[in-house]
Structure formats: C-alpha cells, structure tokens
C-alpha cells in the first residue's frame, strides 16, 4: 500500500511539475515584451500599466467574490483549473483577432486598449485556475514538506520562465510576434496542453487515500489558537501588500530603462539576457529557500529575501554595463522568488483547510499587485510626473523611481518584523 501511495504521489508531483513548467513558459513568451509592445501602441508609461492593473482587479473580483467560495464549498480544485485554462485558450484567440482588425485600420491606441480590456475580461474567469492551483498544492503537501515542494515547483517555474523569455527574444521581432499572432497561437497551444495535464492529474488524485490529504495534525491544531494565527495572517498580508508594491512598482519602468538610449540602450537579445539572469537567480534560490524554510523557519528566510529586495533597486543606477546589470537583476530575482516561495508556504501553514479557497484568494490578490497596480500607483505616475511636469530626463526619473521602490519595501519589511517575525506560527 505504501509503495502504491508513493507512486501515486510521484505521479501527482510529475503532473504538477509539467503544468507549472508550461504555465511559466507561456508567461515568459507572452508577457516579456508585452509592456514594450503596449508602449509602442499607446505611448505613455502609465497607460502600459493598465494591463496588469485591470488584470489584477478582475482576478481579485473573480477569486474573492466567486471562485474561492466555490472551491471551499464544493471542494473543487482540478476542475476549476481545467475550466480556467480552457476559457483562457478561447479568449486569447478572440482578443487577438479583434486586436488585429484594429491594427489593420491603423487604430493603434484602440488596438492597445483591446489587449488591456480583453485580457482583463479573460482574467476574471481565468482566476479560477489560480484559486484551484493554490488550494490543490496545499492539499497535496504537509506543513513539514510544503516549503521544499513549493521551492521545487518554483524552480521548475523559473526554468520554464527562462525558456519562455529566451523564445520571446526571438519571437517578438519588434512587435511582429504579436501583430502576426505567432505568440498568441503558441500560448493557446500551451493552454490546451495544460488543461489536458490537469485532467490526468484529477484522475490520479482520486486514487490517493483520504488520510494522505490531511495537511494539518490534530496536535498542531490544539496547540495554536485560531484567532492567534488569524491575526498573524492579517498582518502578514498587510506587510506583504506594501512589500509587493515596493518590490514590483518598477517592473514596467525597468523594462523601459533597459531600452533607454541614455542608459543601457540594450538590444532585444541583451534585454533577454538580463531578464534571464533574474529568472536564473530565482531558479537557484527557490530550491534552497524552500528547503531552508522547512528547517530554520519561514520568517527568517523571508526576511533575508526582503533585505535583497530593498538593496537591489538602489544598484540599478550604477549598473551601466549589461553584465553588471544582469548580476544585479539576478540578485533581485533571488529576492522576489524567496518572498514568493516562502510566502506561499507560510500562508499554507496558517490557513485552515476549510478556508483555503477564500484565504488563498486574498493572498493571490496581494501577489497580483505585481502585475501592474504597483506600477500604476507608483512607478508609472512618478516617472511621468518627473518627465512631463518637472522637466527631468527619463534617466533621472527612472532612477528616482528605483530609490522610491527601496523605501516602500523597507516600510513593509519593518511592519513584517514588528508584527510577524517575532511570532512562531504552526498549522491551524
């Protein structure tokens, strides 16, 4: 029986790994140059952040109002993922054809808005896949191994993203990859493959004995008051909101900074190299941070990631060589993937089993701030105001934005230390 159980768990992990790999290849292929493409169409930094911002809002509404509750009430995991991936594949095609028709009549700004609003509409339904994935991953891990498993999957995710970025550098071709639909078609094919993999996974999970899906021991439940962990989780999310805003508000600005003639003036292949370094840093640390989090504690490893997230934006302004920038951005990748890996494991430890859908919806919403809202709230406006209202050069404006990002992240880190770091948490 134990042999069969181990084989089943290995099969589940393999399927989850394949799904994670395809998901991040797809993200690397599609989103690496999307900001640059939107900027070419819409011509302002702030407008380019609308994509991630509206995506995040649609995802947050879907997860918190609908999908999280459905996941908890009906115990749906894999079905939500399969439906979400399938809906996404169909909608991507519809959005592309509308976008293409507007390009044909030279309505460039409108074609950009089509991408922004079309992909945001898609995200409301696609977010059911995010809820299902978070709950499923927590279901099939334990609090003793969750950090290591999440770290391994994030390693695979980083590898997939690196491969996706590499292909993006070749497929983008100054926007032709989007204009001709090549990138859209590749993404749709991967979404169909992901839905198929999750269909196989759903059948495998049904063979697991019920006891193996118990995440939380009775002993741990008895030792830790529910309201204590609820307070910790609340402050964890509050600190995480500030941290994510600070750590990611420069995402869009950074991509434009790399292309700036007064700065690095990086070519598409050089840009891919720098972005790949970020992924390689994250790929290496994912395994290590998850392993360390299981052994020395989540909070200590998480805080280490915060320190790097504070320091690295300060170094962008002095990294005027492609290879130096690749190294610095690699350190930033280590910071972000440490926060993401350990943060997920930390949340999984203290969220009750019957509330995983709803509470992971909140966690996913906070992490989704990195998609664009942080850029819309801080990075984009701060850059545009300096250049358009105060006559600063784009180089100066972008560097000042990097400094601001470090300050914001530091504020979040202080809150984390005061309200979360000192508390030892166990599973609820």
Count the E strands: 0
Tally of individual helices = 18
Number of discrete domains: 1
Shape: globular
Write the layout of secondary structure elements.
Layout: H1 2-31, H2 34-42, H3 45-48, H4 50-74, H5 78-104, H6 108-139, H7 146-171, H8 176-179, H9 182-205, H10 218-223, H11 226-248, H12 251-259, H13 268-296, H14 298-315, H15 322-350, H16 356-367, H17 373-388, H18 394-421
Helix pairs in contact: 1-7, 1-9, 4-6, 4-16, 4-17, 5-6, 5-9, 6-16, 7-13, 7-15, 11-16, 11-17, 11-18, 13-14, 13-15, 14-15, 14-18, 15-16, 17-18
Describe what you observe in this structure.
By secondary structure, the protein is mainly α. It has a single domain, classed as Up-down Bundle (Growth Hormone, Chain: A). It has 18 helices and no strands. It has helices at 2-31, 34-42, 45-48, 50-74, 78-104, 108-139, 146-171, 176-179, 182-205, 218-223, 226-248, 251-259, 268-296, 298-315, 322-350, 356-367, 373-388, 394-421. α6 (108-139) crosses α16 (356-367), α7 packs antiparallel against α15 (322-350) and α14 runs antiparallel to α15 (322-350). It is globular.
What is the gist of this entry?
The chain has 428 residues and is mostly helical. The protein has helices at 2-31, 34-42, 45-48, 50-74, 78-104, 108-139, 146-171, 176-179, 182-205, 218-223, 226-248, 251-259, 268-296, 298-315, 322-350, 356-367, 373-388, 394-421.
Highlighted features:
18 helices, 82% helix, mainly alpha
């Amino acid at each position: 029986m134990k042999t069969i159980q181990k084989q089943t768990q290995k099969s589940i992990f393999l399927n989850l790994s394949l799904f994670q790999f395809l998901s991040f290849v797809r993200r690397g292929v599609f989103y690496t140059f999307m900001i640059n493409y939107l900027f070419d169409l819409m011509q302002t930094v702030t407008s380019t952040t609308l994509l991630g911002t509206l995506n995040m809002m649609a995802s947050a509404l879907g997860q918190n109002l609908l999908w999280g509750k459905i996941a908890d009430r009906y115990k749906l995991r894999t079905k939500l993922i399969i439906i979400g991936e399938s809906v996404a594949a169909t909608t991507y095609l519809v959005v592309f054809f509308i976008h293409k028709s507007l390009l044909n009549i030279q309505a460039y700004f409108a074609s950009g808005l089509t991408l922004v609003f079309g992909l945001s509409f898609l995200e409301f339904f696609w977010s059911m896949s995010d809820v299902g994935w978070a709950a499923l991953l927590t279901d099939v891990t334990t609090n003793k191994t969750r950090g290591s498993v999440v770290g391994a999957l994030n390693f695979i995710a980083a590898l997939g993203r690196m491969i996706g970025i590499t292909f993006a550098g070749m497929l983008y071709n100054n926007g032709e990859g989007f204009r001709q639909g090549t990138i859209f078609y590749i993404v749709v094919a991967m979404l169909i493959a992901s839905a198929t993999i999750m269909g196989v996974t759903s059948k495998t999970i049904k063979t697991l004995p019920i006891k193996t899906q118990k995440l939380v021991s009775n002993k741990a439940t008895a030792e830790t008051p529910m309201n204590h962990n609820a307070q910790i989780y609340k402050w964890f999310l509050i600190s995480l909101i500030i941290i994510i805003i600070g750590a990611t508000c420069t995402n869009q600005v950074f991509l434009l900074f790399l292309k700036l003639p007064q700065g690095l003036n990086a070519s598409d292949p050089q840009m891919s190299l720098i972005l790949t370094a970020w992924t390689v840093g994250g790929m290496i640390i994912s395994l290590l941070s998850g392993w360390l989090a299981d052994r020395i504690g989540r909070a200590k490893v998480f805080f280490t990631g915060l320190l790097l997230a504070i320091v690295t934006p300060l170094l962008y302004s002095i990294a005027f060589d492609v290879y130096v920038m690749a190294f610095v951005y690699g350190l930033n990748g280590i910071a972000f993937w440490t926060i993401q890996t350990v943060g997920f494991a930390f949340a999984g430890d203290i969220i009750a089993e019957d509330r995983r859908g709803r509470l992971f919806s909140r966690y996913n919403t906070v992490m989704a701030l990195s998609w664009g809202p942080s850029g819309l709230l801080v990075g984009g406006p701060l850059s545009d105001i300096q250049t358009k209202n105060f006559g600063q050069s784009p180089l100066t404006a972008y560097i000042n934005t990097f400094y601001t990002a470090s300050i914001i992240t530091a504020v979040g880190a202080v809150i984390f230390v005061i309200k979360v770091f000192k508390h030892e948490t166990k599973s609820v």
